[in-house]
Amino acid sequence: MKALLSGRRTDLLELSDLEAENIRIKSLHARISLKMNDNGKANLLVHPIYHTAITPDFLTDNEAQQLQKGEIQNLLRILQDDKGNKTELLVEYDAETREFIVSDSEKILVPDMVNNEFLTPAQKENYRKGKEVQIADGAKFNYSGTDRQGILSNRLALVASVLIDGGLSYMVYRGLNALFNKKRDEEAAGRLSPGYYAAIRDIEDQRPGRSDQAAHNYKGNEISR
In what order do the strands lie in the sheet with 151-153? Predict the structure, then answer.
């Protein structure tokens, strides 16, 4: 539900007894996501496991193979329409469903703060382009359209903050997957920074009816999956 409501794809799910246009499917493994239609209503999209990946026509065969083989995490492509309007696309490959994931980089939600540290304009731009970002407390992370949480990191948990209508909206990520093709020390990954715990305290301070003790429950040096 968290993945769906955040505009991301779920992990693989087993869907049963599907019916559509006189087609009945007893069981199907797929990811699902929500997409707003022109009427402002959410449609449920099903992303099944394809037999063969359909390569976007703006990718070369070599680029597609690099993504499929896991040699690179993503590619940036700029497309231009007949009116000269340009769109920057971030292309990834979902090995589980054998599908190329294409995201409009301008529509990727970029955090203003991570672990209570403001991101610079350059860091925000790198995040939007799917590049790795590192902040002062040693946390590294990058956007991923193929991951259920939408973000990969060398840490098990992060707190991201977005400025909305003059206030901060917090997103707490736990059990994060490792950065692309990079092994991590799981013990070190669980040692979270003072900035992380400060952000957690800020969240607790904004919740009505919560005691000071609730914030103290987050104190410690490590977090497990």
Answer: 133-134, 140-143, 151-153
Neighbours of 213 (CB within 10 A): 8
Q: Which amino acid is at 138?
A: G
Alpha-carbon distances, residue 8 vs 4, 82, 149 (angstroms): 5, 30, 7
Q: In 106-202, where do the E strands start and end? A: 113-114, 117-118, 133-134, 140-143, 151-153, 157-164, 167-174
Of 149, 117, 146, 148, residue with least CA distance to 134: 117
Any idea how long the chain is? 225
CB burial class (10 A; 0-12, 13-18, 19+) of residue 41?
exposed
Domain ranges of the chain: 1-49, 51-107, 113-215
Contact 173, 151 (CB under 8 A): yes
- The sign of the CA dihedral 162, 168, 173, 178 is positive
Summarize pLDDT for 39-66 with one digit per residue, the tens: 888 888 888 888 899 999 999 999 999 9
Q: For the chain, what is the mean pLDDT?
A: 88
Q: In angstroms, rounded to a whole number, what is the distance separating the alpha carbons of residues 142 and 36?
A: 25
